Amino acid sequence: MPNGEPFINKPVPGADQYYPLNDPAIGTPLPIKAYPQNAKVPLLFQPLTIRGITFKNRIWVSPMCQYSSDNGHATDWHLVHLGGYATRGVGAICVEASSVTPEGRISPEDSGIWDDSHIPGFKRIVDFSHAHGTLIGIQLGHAGRKASTLAPSVHTNAAKTRRAPKRTADIEDNGWPGDVVGPSAISFAEGYPDPKAMQAEDFVRIEEAFVAAVERCKKIGFDFIELHAAHGYLLHEFVSPLSNNRTDEYGGSLENRLRYPLRIIERVRKAWDKPLFVRISATDWAEGPEKGDNGEWRYWGLEQSKVYVGEMKKLDVDLVDCSTGGNWDKQDIPLVPGYQVPFAEGLKKAHPDIPVTAVGLITDPKQAEEILQSGKADAIFLARELLRNPHWAMYAAQELGVAIKPSNQYERAWMSVLTAKPVPN
Ligand SMILES: Cc1cc2nc3c(=O)[nH]c(=O)nc-3n(C[C@H](O)[C@H](O)[C@H](O)COP(=O)(O)O)c2cc1C
């Protein structure tokens, strides 16, 4: 052999199918020797290590319900949808909210992880993602009083020929409105199910379901778990005075409202030794001050969120994913670019020692890089922009002038990125 090693399209070692090996990994900087511009790598493309696991960059796929599961089971839609991100350079993928019990689904077509039969569908996606060098986790949740609702495209179709007069998925719509539970018997809004206030056995059942789901996550091989404690679903419902008027040890004082979510976090943490994230809504976006003149908390907001994160730190949570809203139907959200970033920044200022992610109308690579550079967050979750442009990581590399590895198969599309340039000033 005149040149030493033969020129073989090397396979990914240990993968269940033949996939060409990417070296370096997709979405990581190429060597400075070949690309002098990589002397300065934007923070977006710098790794982040959490609990000994290194995320190759800080562009992460936010969890997004696809309303496409078959009685909770992932299908080939999920493999193609999520697999497409694994091949396009993101640093992590978070699988959509997946319910730990059947009645905790938001819609009948939501993803689920309440049964062992859900394991193979997820495993196929995780194995594919790993074969392409991309970490993948899952968001575990329970929709509480916002369960048994119609998927958005079922409620109102895009052709605008059909609009349901209600949000509830009734029995005839494959729903379970009679089994919807929440901290209190307070409906989210007109047209939503009327929840039953959780009883002692519900507390135990749901808590155990979270722990059982973690055991399935281990078998599947997920790299991280995110607990869904945001957007007006069960765990958020407990912490907010708008949805929790219990008079027992789970309602009233802030300490009481935090009790059940913290217990679930504690149980999950004990069962899971890889990175654990918690997504919270840092405000209900309700009117007036978070605390009334009488000293009582009126709704959920940033000040209580800071206390909550302090408690999470004591339980060894690894990262807080900062979102907002979803628990008050009259919420008035100023939808400007990066509208939730000030909340992430607020949490980071209060707790500089725990990583925080920002999400929400972050669409521009320079905007995302500025959020990281100014220390407002440690990584960025993107949702809708990644639906529009699954290649966003490569596009960001192009915009920020850094040479990042595309997948072998897509290299010819990214010659603009794979061109050596001088060291930037
Ligand atoms: C189709 C769709 C489904 C979503 N599903 C979830 C979900 O399962 N869990 C969650 O926490 N947020 C969910 N979200 C919210 C996103 O993760 C994200 O926080 C929000 O869209 C704001 O980010 P963006 O401006 O980048 O889209 C969803 C958003 C969209 C567009």
Automatic annotation (TrEMBL):
The keyword Flavoprotein applies. The keyword RNA-binding does not apply. Residues 156-175 are annotated as: Disordered. Keywords: Flavoprotein, FMN, NADP, Oxidoreductase. It comes from the Eukaryota. Pfam families: Oxidored_FMN. Its cofactor is FMN. SUPFAM superfamilies: FMN-linked oxidoreductases. InterPro entries: Aldolase_TIM, OxRdtase_FMN_N, YqjM-like. Residues 44-399 form the NADH:flavin oxidoreductase/NADH oxidase N-terminal domain. One of its GO terms (molecular function) is FMN binding. PANTHER family: NADPH DEHYDROGENASE C23G7.10C-RELATED (PTHR43303). This is NADH:flavin oxidoreductase/NADH oxidase. It comes from Phanerochaete sordida. The lineage of its organism: Eukaryota, Fungi, Dikarya, Basidiomycota, Agaricomycotina.
